[in-house]
Amino acid sequence: xxxxxxxxxxxxxxxxxxxxxxxxxxxxxxxxxxxxxxxxxxxxxxxxxxxxxxxxxxxxxxxxxxxxxxxxxxxxxxxxxxxxxxxxxxxxxxxxxxxxxxxxxxx
Length: 107
Hints:
By secondary structure, this protein is mainly α. The chain has helices at about 1-5, 10-30, 50-65, 65-80, 85-105. Helix 2 packs across helix 5 and helix 3 (about 50-65) packs across helix 4 (about 65-80).
């Protein structure tokens, strides 16, 4: 995975594949993604606000240090926008990246 992290072309193509799949899925069904239902306030067990902000700052600092982390996050956000879980989205991006790598090796 580290070797693919430096290849911006692979990540760009993976992002484009994911976004194209999202557009096709949405246009085929003409259904917009449903927003999650809000849970009652007493049931929510969210992380305290300062912790969320601190985690976000740390993630953004890491992305500034290594731009491939940002590209990977952006590639994964596409499938997640159409309702896939984070794990499913990561698998989808990884498959697209491997497919691109195999295509480049054959050619």
